[in-house]
Amino acid sequence: MTNAELQALVEKLSLESFDRPFLHQASFNSRLRTTGGRYHLTDHHLDFNPRLFAAVDESVIHGIIKHELCHYHLHLQKKGYRHKDQDFKKLLAKTGGSRYAPRIEERASYVYECSQCHQLIKRQRRLNLRRYVCAGCHGRLQLLQNNDQ
User: Fold this and answer.
1) Strand 37-39's sheet: what is its strand order?
2) Residue 51, number of CB atoms within 10 A of its CB
3) Are 119 and 134 in contact (CB under 8 A)?
4) Buried-state track 80-108, b at ≥16 Cβ within 10 A, e below 16
5) What are the beta bridge partners of residue 111?
6) pLDDT tens digits, residue range 77-114?
7) What's residue 49's pLDDT?
8) Distance between CA atoms of 123 and 109, rounded to whole angstroms?
9) SS3 for 3?
10) Which region, left, alpha or beta, applies to residue 96 given φ > 0 means left and ψ of -120 to 50 means alpha?
11) Among this protein's residues, is 68 annotated catalytic?
């Protein structure tokens, strides 16, 4: 999906689900990692995660876009646009937007196992095996899995 296709889809969903036009810019932002999209309060544009859009089906994409459009339309109407506000929760339920973005990848990239008690330890950063030991039994650790990106 290109930025132009994304812009057209956001404008279409805005008219269909909210009966209001989307008058600002929607684009992909490759720096987004843990979120599906983001609404900017200052200039009202929307950013979306391209890796998430490539990994999920169309219904999840529509849910993410509707979630960000809820922020957009409520903020412009000067209503409660934050996740905790009742206006946001009601509009999100009414339009069928998703509450959370799905996870697309496992966060732990290193898996270690204690050689004595066989406890599994998942880490994002590599451990120095000469320096660190198991917290439970002080046994030596072994690298089982390395999922470098």
Assistant:
1) 26-28, 46-48, 37-39
2) 13
3) yes
4) bbeeeeeebeebbeebebbeebeeeeeee
5) 122, 145
6) 999 999 999 999 999 999 999 998 888 765 658 999 99
7) 95
8) 6
9) helix
10) left
11) yes
Q: Catalogue the long-range contacts made by 135-139 (C-beta closer than 8 Å, 24 or more residues apart).
A: 139/114, 139/115
Q: Is 141 helix (H, G, I), strand (E, B) or coil?
A: strand
Contact at 8 Å (CB) between 26 and 72?
no
97 contacts 61 by C-beta, under 8 angstroms: no
pLDDT in the model for residue 102: 86
- CA pair distance 131, 31, nearest whole angstrom: 34
Q: Tokens representing 16?
A: 């269909």
Q: What is the DSSP code (8-state) at residue 129?
A: T
Three-class DSSP labels, 54-123: HHCCHHHHHHHHHHHHHHHHHHHCCCCCCCCCHHHHHHHHHHCCCCCCCCCCCCCCEEEEECCCCCEEEE
Identified catalytic residue from 5, 11, 16, 68: 68
pLDDT digits (tens, 9 = 90+) for 39-88: 999 999 999 999 999 989 999 999 999 999 999 999 999 999 999 999 99
